[in-house]
Amino acid sequence: MTSSTGPFIAAIDQGTTSSRCIVFDRDGRIVAVDQKEHEQIFPKPGWVEHDAIEIWTNVQEVVAGAIAKAEITAADVKAVGITNQRETTVLWDKNTGQPVHNALVWQDTRTDALCKELGRNVGQDRFRRETGLPLASYFAGPKARWLLDNVEGLRERAEAGDILFGTMDSWVIWNLTGGAEGGVHVTDVTNASRTMLMNLHTLEWDAKIAESMEVPLDILPEIKSSAEVYGHVKDGVLAGVPVASALGDQQAALFGQTCFAEGEAKSTYGTGTFMLMNTGDKVINSYSGLLTTVGYKIGDQKPVYALEGSIAVTGSLVQWMRDQMGMIKTAAEIETLALSVEDNGGAYFVPAFSGLFAPYWRSDARGVIAGLTRYVTKAHIARAVLEATAWQTREITDAMTKDSGVELAALKVDGGMTSNNLLMQTLSDFVDAPVVRPMVAETTCLGAAYAAGLAVGFWPDTDALRANWRRAAEWTPRMPAEQRDREYKNWLKAVERSMGWIDDEVAS
């Protein structure tokens, strides 16, 4: 098994499609991994749920699995860090530990009508100054409100003090540290900044917004930094180990990519794609459709903020090609298929399956394939699928430059899709900057491990973490500028065609 000797740090990544645990050594190298998928529940079009109990069971299994594979014990593990799919919302009974309903996943659009209603005469920007977020179905606060309104008797139970709210970090930490038997009810600033209930400037729950949203403050967890000891694991193979970090998955990737300086950016290509740029201690309000979010906060140091662009559908578009369309048998096959043609054959694929996220925030948009002729084959469509991810990234980098005034010097990338070399070259061509992939592609887990390690003194400071970062591959732009501009114009035309598909009445 592993040649590295301990001690180690463990990281739990509770993601959108699976949960996993990775054990890292002092060099930030992977010692062992265990992973398990959970069910995606689609009760109605646009609704997406997870079973929080299934997820907690899986988390316990992957932790046990990773520790077994590493052939170590709790004594070798100095801390465990948590990273998680963000905005996914669960409410549970604090006395029984039972969720009151399935978790509402970040992709779920059932709160569309509620968000419009909350916008009242002000619109999407009603809470943006305090929270950095537009009113969109994506965020956790409105999801909690939906549950309180729609699960019978829940509001009464919440007001009686029996109900706890959490994003997945809070759910996992509460259960790890004892659950109904004294579990710690906390969240960190990065996850709290995605609820639409936290004030970015004070890093505390905003009582006025919570009141407008009709979410009782009592159900909310205590907000902590991203790197400190919240409590200790109560049972299982890691019993007694400090739980010492929590970071939303995209902030964890920013941290794992060691983007500690202002202007440094990373893009994570998973189910969706998320690009974050470190903006230092400045809260930069976006006028170009980006989110302002907390990047991370280490212990009692000052918080570091970030601008974020989120794309709803990237990796899941490849999954759709495989599972729903049957055009490919494995995700990796898309690259081979796309490489069998020179270009996209004039086809553009805008995957607005659940509306468009940044920079548009249009829940009325739906997916389109534009520019179809008899000439187009499934290979051209495969190419258009990969280009969709690259063009959407380009739209975000343009918005970031506009908001921050900082030009993108290079883009650090991670996530499952980065193993696709054609996509990486296309990205570099479209954003017109070098694209860099690190040795350890699991930067989300690595970020959680780094933060937990800092909290317990396993690593002395962020400079030590930077020294761990190693480049595996780099792509540089090869596309002529006039071709890039022409293609971009076509892409933007296709995006326009996707908008206004759903009428207001139906969208709710």
Terminal-residue CA separation = 53 Å
The helix content is: 25-40%
Radius of gyration: 22 Å
Q: List the uncertain runs.
A: none
Classify the secondary structure makeup into a structural class: alpha+beta
What's the main sheet like? 7 strands, mixed
The number of distinct β-strands equals 23
Folded structure, characterized:
By secondary structure, the chain is of the alpha+beta class. It is 34% helix and 22% strand. The chain contains 17 helices and 23 strands. The chain has a seven-stranded mixed sheet. Strands 3-2-1-5-14-13 form a six-stranded mixed sheet, sandwiched between helices. A hairpin with a 4-residue loop joins strand 10 and strand 11.
Topology:
Blueprint: E1 8-14, E2 18-24, E3 30-37, E4 49-50, H1 52-70, E5 77-84, E6 89-93, E7 103-104, H2 112-119, H3 128-131, H4 140-150, H5 154-159, E8 163-167, H6 168-176, E9 186-188, H7 189-192, E10 198-199, E11 204-205, H8 207-213, E12 222-224, E13 227-232, E14 242-248, H9 249-256, E15 265-269, E16 273-278, E17 291-296, E18 304-311, H10 315-323, H11 333-339, E19 348-350, E20 368-370, H12 378-404, E21 411-414, H13 421-431, E22 435-438, H14 443-455, H15 462-468, E23 471-475, H16 481-498, H17 504-507
Parallel strand pairs: 1-5, 5-14, 9-12, 15-21, 21-22
Antiparallel strand pairs: 1-2, 2-3, 4-7, 6-8, 10-11, 13-14, 15-16, 16-18, 17-18, 19-20, 22-23
Helix pairs in contact: 9-14, 10-12, 11-12, 12-13
